[in-house]
Amino acid sequence: MNGPVAAPAQTLPDEAASSPVALQRILKGLPGVDQVGCEARAAGLATRSIKAASKAWALDLAISMIDLTTLEGQDTPGKVRALCAKAVRPDPADPSCPRVAAICVYPDMVSSARTALGGSGVAVASVSTAFPSGRAALDIKLLDTRQAVEAGADEIDMVIDRGAFLAGDFTRVFDEIVAVKQACSRRSQDSPDAHLKVILETGELVTYDNVRRASWLAMLAGADFIKTSTGKVQPAATMPVTLTMLEAVRDFRDATGRQVGVKAAGGISTAKDAIRYLVMVNETVGDDWLDPAWFRFGASRLLNDLLMQRTRLATGHYSGPDYFTLD
Amino acid sequence: MAFEYAPAPESRAVVNLASSYGLFIDGEFVDGSGSSFKSVSPATEEVLAEISEASAADVDRAVAVARNAYSGVWSTMPGAERAKYLYRIARIIQERSRELAVLESLDNGKPIKESRDVDLPLVAAYFFYYAGWADKLPHAGYGADPQPLGVAAQIIPWNFPLLMLSWKIAPALACGNTVVLKPAETTSLTALLFAEICQQADLPPGVVNIVTGPGATGQHLVAHPDVDKIAFTGSTEVGKAIAREVAGTDKRITLELGGKAANIVFDDAPIDAAVEGIVNGIFFNQGHVCCAGSRLLVQESVYDDVLARLKRRMATLRLGDPLDKNTDVGAINSPEQLAKIHELSAVGDSEGAQRWSAPCELPDRGFWFPPTIFSGVSQAHRIAREEIFGPVLSILTFRTPAEAVEKANNTPFGLSAGVWTDKGSRILWMANALRAGVVWANTFNRFDPTSPFGGYKESGFGREGGRHGLEAYLAH
Amino acid sequence: MPTESSVRLGVRKTYKLYIGGAFPRSESGRSYVVSDPAGRFLANAARASRKDARDCVVAARKAFPGWSGRTPYNRGQVVYRVAEVLEDRREQFVDSVLSSEGGARKAAQATVSAAIDRLVWYAGWADKVAQVVGSTNAVAGPYFDFSVPEPTGVVAVVAPQRSSLLGLVSVLAPIITTGNTCVVMASTRRPLPAVNLAEVLATSDVPGGVVNLLTGDVAEVSPWLASHADVNAIDLTGVADPALARDLELAAADNLKRVLRASGVPVQAEGGLADDSAEGAEPDWAVDPGLARLTAFLETKTVWHPIGI
Q: ipTM of this model?
């Protein structure tokens, strides 16, 4: 409904793939994002006050949307197993507590996570494509991805080539996403392809105009999810950045009919913040995205704060960190 | 399951309402010699308090004590000392801001989110800003030794009761004038709480006097022979009556009157921000804003897109209890105003414009009107020409910048305008061509104490705010 | 029962430097004796070194983007807050001025009042100075053209030697009100009000690093500030020695620092210090300061933009 309109015979993604000029035209034809207006709108949404039953509902929803993450050089199978246990039963004292959406690990930890999670329903997400910098040759990135998929990853969190994007080589970024998407395929009827999340690393794109363009670029290339950040660059997820991406997935669905998910990753560590994001989802893209299938939080510390607030609502008094497991 | 927000009401307990209020004259609350009237909460129709109606004799007394305070204390006090009184008032407003915000929302019907986050911070900021001028007047550009005028009669409207009070009282006092202020009949309560703040600040008696009452009280105040200056914010009709009243006298006047602002959206606008700006422009404070962007001019090439986005955004507006922190649109201030909005909307229907209202439930009690847009409006329609002063937007289209300017200027009003485009040079070209006192570009309804505000044409004359706002209160 | 004063020994305060929001001793480990006008011991003050000055410049530079990026309204509120906290501690400052400058208690009280009022005066300028010295320029062409004042950056200040509080506030307030950050050398012989003022600043919402304060020997430290390439301007108000002032100005020329010269007229000393003449002339701090000190450390930026459809 805005900006680019597909020619009758051709879908918008087809047109984007047809030539570098077409891709440039589509991305540069997107409406601008006014920084002040965008930040004011995000700040306005952050003033909503959520109470009582709505808050309890939102806390559980937020828990179920978490990609519980460990992406450290010091990760071990033991650490990953512990995190998986936490993912399946976040609050050992309360079986009514929902499980998280996924565990997010480096590719070499996928098999450990796969084994630990079994049929729990918690998905395994793996970062790939030379995360977090993305500075590797394409065939290495594809191998990185295929190995994670073969090891049992349900979801692949790839990074875009920010250097190419900032240099204006949109086609290079586009082609790389298309190739990684193909590498997510299991080529089998029985097991579904891995879902592709595309990390924009908005902290390196800097402007909201770039965030909107990169969002459209990733969606046109076939992303199932667009994700804000690796968590390794500051700033990571912010309300205005996520707002810009939500507006993009909304407009993209209007233009193409395909719904794409959004993952806000990095820097969201309190229940209060998480609820603000959910309010923002609710008021910009609505119910359709208020589901772990369409909105995720990439976080590690957030879960325990959500659990503490959950306990606070259930018991009526404030809890402390000693009462929740480390991982 | 949908995300339903539970009610999150701001506590009323911070406000101690008396059952009745007198007038504030000579530093004290006194019973008026006239009758009294009720102040009603527009959201519930609950009677909040009984308020004295200032009689002619009461007004005479207020002007007399203001004159005494002017010649005896205030005009001769060093500017640096006047400044410190105003800084004190600003600080007390900050300290008591939640109480003032709750009372404002109760009495006026505006959402607490606005009274708390917009009105009150601005009220304090205006006092801070003009406090700073009190001892710097020789630097203001109005002569080496500018002098105050005397007693200022100030009449303010009900849409921003406390904010309009600050726009009037802060510069008047900074320049060395004393004031007699009449709040609007339906919104006297925060002005009376402000009187209490003057007492807490030990402001010398008679410097600020507040007389409550209907239009007749204001008429008497305006006509009073010992008033040197009249500052009025309100309808163009009353503004004209005041201009006639002072004809042939030495009284200085400034008038902030009605408007029918064009909010102009070009095809290259930052579209999501523009939609926010349209919503803020007309639904902020239920559209009870003289500078509201009540005429939307959309470039024809993006009309369908803008309209669809606007409707989608309007569907998320939450209308209801002004004290609920999640309320976006509050109550219409009075049954009279509600009737006027209904009447003009009916005219819009009969003239053939297409009405669409946001799907929100209206409470059973109180005065309410849903956020509403009329599409298919042309320049000839009454809803494109007359100020509705409610949450009602008229949408027109244009093809070229010149046509947008022509349509925007084709009104007797000239208070404000909005321009939405990513092209800087076009913003400046439009700003040059628009006959309006304030032009907002890629934003709307912004106010700041440093920024002069006021209208062209029948939107009034004189400026409030900024260095320019001093001129209205100085002889030079 | 004995009264408290008969048995209780007072706890003396250690007077330290103020750098980046913290109160360190001099890295040099040195101190010097501060006496009252009658020569009685008051305190040992820290004697700042070249390296302390260097640390101050680093702290001031680090604080500059944040402080200059705040809204003028906010800076005005902060400077006003300094006045409030100073008023709250006025007796301490009356004592401090009295012991540093001598004279009558009443005069010291008037001095403290004037210092508070001066802060209030400058606080009000924060959001007004652009309205008085800025402009839109009616250029002959289709351009929107305007000029706005901006803070120059890091300012090194040699504070007045005699007027240890009012003089200090009068040079400091205009510098920070407009968004500059600064490194201040306090009066050498009367540094105690300055250190007390630093404690007020530290508790008045002034971000750390906006004001950095050194005590010690002006002749030793100020040349390092004058020649420092990351200092944008220098205020020589408190430099009594004309030869030193000239040397500092020469050093400042290397990176074209903006220089505000000492421009005092001889005033009658209030306390009657023995070697007043060596402390040079000082402006009359009691009079309306005008705009000179505000504009001394402002740049003017002019912006052009075409007007067209």
A: 0.95
